[in-house]
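Moderator note: this is an archived Q&A kept for reference. The question asked for a predicted structure of one protein chain; the sequence and the answer are reproduced below.
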Amino acid sequence: QVQLVESGGGLVQPGGSLRLSCVGSGFIFSTYVMRWYRQAPGKERVRIAHIDINGGSTNYADSVKGRFTISRDNAKNTVYLQMISLKPEDTAVYYCNAISYYLSQREYWGQGTQVTVSS
């Protein structure tokens, strides 16, 4: 059974840091492009970070560029999102997404983890 399970969310003060993790199972993790999305209250889901299948290339939304870092460890079937200098506008549910590099119609989603940035 395919699973993507996010963890690491929580409450943090503005300027603080948080590290999210997403563990995949039931599919060949190393053949999937990994992405992080977020959805703020009342807003559309947006992509914020992307990493290629071997970790050699990354890209970010302008809203998080310079503050967030995506990485992956294929041996652990895990993708990470390191977040620093957090702002209240970063408050959202964060979702892990996997899409097959070779069969792009195969796509999986995690259940999400809540990040709240507030003083």
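Archived answer notes: Residues 38 and 94 are 4 Å apart (CA to CA).
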